[in-house]
C-alpha cells in the first residue's frame, strides 16, 4: 500500500506541473439563447459578442475631436486580424461622443481567442495627432483587474496553508506525529492532480480547480487524518497495543471519515449534473478531492500508523487518555443553560442570514475596481461626459440572412435604457450583427431588464436569431442553474439525510444535521453578501469596493463545498455522541463526552481549513478572494456557533428522541432499529467515572 501511494505521489508531482496548461475557462451555457447566439456570431464574424474592448480617445483641452482623426485610429484597429469596429469616424453618429465633444469611445470586437493587444496600435495611431488614448474593457476592469501572474501562486499558497496547519497540528499532538497528516495531505493533493490530468484528456476543466485541489484538498486530507490519528492515540493511551489500536481507530474514526467523504462527494454531484461546462468541470475536479483524500486516509494512513506511528509519536507531551477538561466544562455549561445557548446561536445565525435577502447574481460591477488608475479615470470621464458605463457591456443582436437588420436596430434603439443600436456590416454569410449600447452596465439580475426588453421588442421580428453579451450570460445562468437550484438543494438534502439515517440509526439527528447545515451555509452567504457585495469591509481589508453582485458561478460552488465540509464536523461530533450513548444509555453523558472528545479536534480542523482559505485569499483574482473568504468564514461560524453551541444544546433538548429509529424504516434501510427507551440519568460523579471500553 505504501509503495502504491509513493508511485501515485511521484506521478502526481509530474502531473501538477502540467495541469495548469491544460485548464480552461469556458463560460458557455449550452442550450441557452446567449450561448447559442454567441456561437452564431463566431461562425458569421469570428468574434466574441460578449467581450468588447473600448478604446477612448480624448482631444487636448479647448478643442473637439475631428471625425477624420477618429477614423484613422479605427482604420488602424481594423487592420488587426479579425477585428470589427464601430466608431464615430465611420458612422458620424454623435452618440459616440461625450457631451463636450472632446472624447469618444470605439467598440471593438475580437475573436474569442484574443489577438494582439489594442494598446500599441491605438497609441501609435493617436499620438501623432496629439490625442490621449486609453483602452478599457469590462473584462479588464473586473474579471481581469489583477495580473494573474502576481500573487503567491498555487504552490506558495499551499505552503502558506501547510505552515498554518502545522502550527495547529503541533498544538494538537505536541509530537512529531503532527507531520503525518501533512504527509497524507501531500499524497492526496498530488494524487488528485494526477487524476485531474487524466480528466483533462476527456473533458475541459476550469482553471479554478487547481486552487480547489491545493487548498481545499490540504484542509480535507488533514482534517480526516486528524480524526483518525487522534483516535489512534486515544486507544493507545487506554492500553491498546500494536495494530489493535489502528484497527479500533479505523472501525470508529475511519467510519466517520468514510461517511464524511461520501457526504462531501454527494454535495458536489450537484455541480456535475449542471449542464454548464464551467460549473460541471468544477464539480468533477472538486469531486475528486474528498474521494481521493478519503481513499488515502483509509488505506495509507493505517499502514503508516502500523509501521511507524509509535516511533514518530514523540515526545508525547499531550496525553489522550481523557477527554479535554476545558471542553467537558464548556459542554456541561451548554447542557445546563441549553435554552439560552440554543436561543443565542439561533439569534446569531439569524443576524448573519438577513443580508442574504439582498443577494444579487451576475458579475461584479465596474465599481468594484480600485478607485484610481488610468482605466478608472477614463471610465469616470466618460460618465462625466454623459456616456454611461453601459459601453462596457453591449448587447449584441444577431440577425439571420434575409432579415431586416435596420428594423431590428430601430426596435432595439427604442427601448428605455438604450443609448444606441447600430449595425455592423453584413457578414459573408448574410447574417448581420446589431450592437446595442445600454445606458448602464448589465451585470446582475437587477440590471438585465434592458436585455430582456430588447429580446421582447425584437423577438417577433423577421430575422431575429438571438441576443448575447454579458447581460444575456447572466440570464442564461439564471435559467440554467438558479431556476433549478432549489430542487437540486432539496435532492442533496434528501440523499444526505438518508445516508446519515443509516450512519447514525436515527431520524432526528440527521434531520437536525441537514437543517443546521443549510442554516450555516445561509449564514455564510449572508456575511459574504454584506462584506463583498455591499462593500462593508472589502475596501478596508482588500482594497476592493463592493462588487454589487456575486459572480454567477460562485454561489453554487460555495454551497456545494461549504455544505459538504460543514457536514464533516457534524458527522465527527454526532458519530462520537452516538458511540458514547450506545455504551451508557445517557444522553447527557453522550453530549458531554462526545463533544469533550471531538471539540478540540473540530476546532483545530476548522482552523486548519481557515488557514488554507486564508492562503487562497491571497490570489489576485477578486472571485477567488470571495470564494476563499466565504468558505473560511463559513467554516469558522459552523465550528463555533453551530457545532460548539447549537448542536449540543439541541441534542440535550431532544433527549432520548435523538436516538430513535423505528423498526419499519430500519428494515427498509437495512440497519438495526433503535427503539425509544428511557434515558439513563447518570449522576455527575458517575459520568466522570465512566471509562470507555475498547471499541474494537
From TrEMBL:
InterPro entries: MMPL_dom, Mycobact_MmpL, SSD. Residues 160-307 form the SSD domain. It is found in: Cell membrane. It is a multi-pass membrane protein. Keywords: Cell membrane, Membrane, Transmembrane, Transmembrane helix. Pfam families: MMPL. Coiled coil: none annotated. The chain crosses the membrane at residues 159-177, 182-202, 208-229, 256-276, 288-309, 339-361, 485-501, 513-532, 552-574, 601-620. Its main location: membrane. PROSITE patterns: SSD. PANTHER family: MEMBRANE PROTEIN MJ1562-RELATED, MEMBRANE PROTEIN YDFJ. This is SSD domain-containing protein. It comes from Actinoplanes palleronii.
Amino acid at each position: 500500500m505504501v509503495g502504491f501511494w509513493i508511485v501515485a505521489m511521484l506521478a502526481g508531482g509530474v502531473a501538477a506541473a502540467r495541469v495548469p496548461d491544460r485548464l480552461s475557462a469556458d463560460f458557455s451555457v449550452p442550450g441557452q439563447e446567449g450561448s447559442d447566439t454567441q456561437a452564431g456570431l463566431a461562425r458569421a464574424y469570428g468574434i466574441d459578442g460578449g467581450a468588447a474592448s473600448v478604446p477612448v480617445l480624448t482631444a487636448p483641452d479647448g478643442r473637439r475631436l475631428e471625425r477624420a482623426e477618429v477614423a484613422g485610429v479605427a482604420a488602424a484597429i481594423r487592420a488587426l486580424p479579425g477585428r470589427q469596429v464601430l466608431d464615430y469616424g465611420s458612422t458620424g453618429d454623435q452618440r459616440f461622443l461625450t457631451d463636450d465633444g472632446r472624447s469618444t469611445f470605439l467598440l471593438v470586437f475580437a475573436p474569442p481567442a484574443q489577438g494582439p493587444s489594442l494598446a500599441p496600435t491605438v497609441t501609435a495611431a493617436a499620438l501623432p495627432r496629439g490625442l490621449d488614448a486609453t483602452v478599457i474593457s469590462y473584462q479588464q476592469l473586473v474579471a481581469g483587474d489583477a495580473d494573474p501572474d502576481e500573487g503567491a501562486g498555487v504552490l506558495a499558497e499551499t505552503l502558506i496553508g501547510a505552515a498554518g496547519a502545522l502550527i495547529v497540528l503541533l498544538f494538537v499532538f505536541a509530537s512529531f506525529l503532527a507531520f503525518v497528516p501533512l504527509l497524507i495531505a501531500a499524497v492526496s493533493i498530488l494524487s488528485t492532480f494526477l487524476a485531474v490530468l487524466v480528466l483533462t484528456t476527456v473533458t475541459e476543466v476550469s482553471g479554478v480547480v487547481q486552487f480547489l485541489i491545493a487548498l481545499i484538498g490540504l484542509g480535507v486530507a488533514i482534517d480526516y487524518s486528524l480524526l483518525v490519528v487522534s483516535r489512534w492515540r486515544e486507544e493507545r493511551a487506554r492500553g491498546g497495543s500494536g495494530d489493535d489500536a489502528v484497527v479500533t481507530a479505523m472501525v470508529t474514526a475511519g467510519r466517520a471519515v468514510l461517511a464524511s467523504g461520501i457526504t462531501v462527494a454527494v454535495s458536489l454531484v450537484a455541480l456535475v449534473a449542471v449542464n454548464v461546462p464551467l460549473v460541471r468541470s468544477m464539480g468533477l475536479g472538486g469531486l475528486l478531492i474528498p474521494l481521493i483524500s478519503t481513499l488515502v486516509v483509509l488505506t495509507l494512513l493505517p499502514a503508516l500508523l502500523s509501521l511507524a506511528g509509535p516511533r514518530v509519536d514523540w515526545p508525547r507531551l499531550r496525553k489522550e487518555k481523557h477527554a479535554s477538561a476545558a471542553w467537558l466544562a464548556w459542554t456541561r455549561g451548554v447542557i445546563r443553560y441549553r435554552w439560552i445557548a440554543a436561543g443565542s446561536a439561533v439569534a446569531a445565525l439569524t443576524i448573519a442570514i438577513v443580508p442574504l435577502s439582498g443577494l444579487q447574481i451576475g458579475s461584479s460591477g465596474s465599481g468594484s475596481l480600485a478607485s484610481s488608475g488610468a482605466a478608472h479615470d477614463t471610465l469616470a470621464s466618460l460618465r462625466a461626459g454623459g456616456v454611461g458605463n453601459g459601453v462596457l457591456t453591449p448587447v449584441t443582436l444577431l440577425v439571420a440572412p434575409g432579415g431586416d437588420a435596420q428594423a431590428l436596430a430601430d426596435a432595439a434603439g427604442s427601448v428605455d435604457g438604450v443609448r444606441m443600436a447600430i449595425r455592423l456590416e453584413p457578414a459573408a454569410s448574410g447574417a448581420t450583427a446589431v450592437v446595442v449600447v445600454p445606458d448602464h452596465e448589465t451585470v446582475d439580475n437587477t440590471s438585465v431588464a434592458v436585455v430582456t426588453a430588447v429580446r421582447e421588442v425584437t423577438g417577433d421580428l423577421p430575422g431575429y436569431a438571438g441576443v448575447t453579451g454579458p447581460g444575456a450570460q447572466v440570464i442564461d445562468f439564471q435559467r440554467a442553474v438558479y431556476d433549478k437550484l432549489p430542487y437540486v438543494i432539496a435532492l442533496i438534502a434528501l440523499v444526505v439525510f438518508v445516508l446519515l439515517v443509516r450512519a447514525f440509526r436515527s431520524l432526528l439527528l440527521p434531520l437536525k444535521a441537514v437543517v443546521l447545515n443549510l442554516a450555516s451555509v445561509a449564514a455564510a452567504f449572508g456575511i459574504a453578501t454584506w462584506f463583498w457585495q455591499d462593500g462593508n469591509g472589502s475596501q478596508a481589508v482588500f482594497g476592493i469596493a463592493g462588487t454589487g453582485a456575486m459572480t454567477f458561478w460562485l454561489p453554487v460552488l460555495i454551497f456545494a463545498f461549504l455544505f459538504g465540509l460543514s457536514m464533516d464536523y457534524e458527522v465527527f461530533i454526532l458519530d462520537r455522541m452516538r458511540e458514547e450513548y450506545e455504551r451508557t444509555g445517557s444522553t447527557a453523558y453522550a453530549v458531554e463526552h462526545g463533544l469533550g472528545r471531538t471539540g478540540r479536534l473540530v476546532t483545530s480542523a476548522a482552523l486548519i481549513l481557515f488557514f488554507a482559505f486564508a492562503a487562497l485569499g491571497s490570489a489576485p483574482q477578486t472571485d477567488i478572494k470571495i470564494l476563499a473568504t466565504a468558505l473560511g468564514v463559513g467554516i469558522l461560524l459552523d465550528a463555533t456557533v453551530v457545532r460548539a453551541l447549537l448542536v449540543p444544546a439541541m441534542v440535550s433538548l431532544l433527549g432520548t428522541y435523538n436516538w430513535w429509529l423505528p423498526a419499519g424504516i430500519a428494515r427498509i434501510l437495512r440497519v438495526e432499529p433503535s427503539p425509544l427507551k428511557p434515558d439513563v440519568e447518570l449522576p455527575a460523579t458517575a459520568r466522570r467515572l465512566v471509562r470507555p471500553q475498547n471499541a474494537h
